[in-house]
Design a protein that fits this description.
TIM Barrel; 7 helices; alpha/beta; two-stranded antiparallel ribbon; 217 residues
Length: 217
């Protein structure tokens, strides 16, 4: 029997959508601290949302190419369960953060082709999970676009991983059938507009994942 697929609802900014994610059975929520993103929340607001979530769900704080001062401030204020790097952070920098904080660390990587997929191996010894996402465009992540899932076929995963990029309630089952990802990460696919999460779409996404889980038992 396959373990239950983990679900991350990313880019949340309200208590109501956090409650919706928890009620729907998500395992992680994502808080984005990146000013260029339509899903950006201040550190003070992220701390409030993290407190609201409490121990009911794992809270992931997403940073993009944050400098050491901001990284330290963000960790201290928000106290996330997981720190997700979503920029061009180097393995050496990530290893340093992990060593000094002891946090669970995830790294999102854009997958263009087999070569870029293979290059993600340089993170294998320093992160707890790789998130395979669509290549960055004007903004990293949350673009509503997917990559060619067949690139993951036969890939030798050296570390735990997850699938992101263009997922929504209608295609997540197909994505899981194609990749057997242990975690799926959705953002724009449960929105009515950039940064505006819809409670019913969060519920529909989680239900689609659970239906997939039930179908393979």
């Amino acid at each position: 029997m396959q373990n239950k697929t983990q679900i991350k609802i990313c880019g949340l900014s309200t208590e109501a959508t956090i409650d919706a994610a928890i009620e729907a059975g998500a395992t992680h929520i994502g808080l984005v601290h990146f000013e260029k993103s339509p899903r950006h929340v201040s550190l003070a607001r992220a701390a409030e949302l993290r407190d609201h979530a409490g121990d009911r769900i794992k809270t992931v704080l997403l940073l993009v190419n944050a400098d050491p001062k901001l990284t330290g401030k963000a960790i201290a204020e928000v106290k996330p369960d997981v720190l997700q790097f979503h920029g061009s952070e180097t393995p050496d920098w990530i290893a340093l953060v992990k060593k000094n904080t002891g946090l669970t660390i995830w790294k999102a990587v854009g997958v263009r082709d087999k070569a870029t997929l293979a290059s993600t191996g340089r993170y294998a010894d320093v992160v707890d999970r790789l998130l395979f996402d669509a290549p960055a465009r004007a903004l990293p992540g949350g673009t509503g676009t997917s990559f060619d899932w067949s690139l993951l076929a036969g890939h030798d995963h050296q570390v735990d991983w997850g699938l992101a990029g263009g997922l929504d309630p209608d295609n997540v089952a197909d994505a899981l059938n194609a990749t057997h990802a242990p975690l799926v990460d959705v953002s724009s696919g449960v929105e009515s507009a950039p940064g505006v999460k819809q409670v019913d779409r969060i519920a529909a996404f989680c239900q689609a994942v659970r239906d997939y889980d039930a179908s393979i038992r």
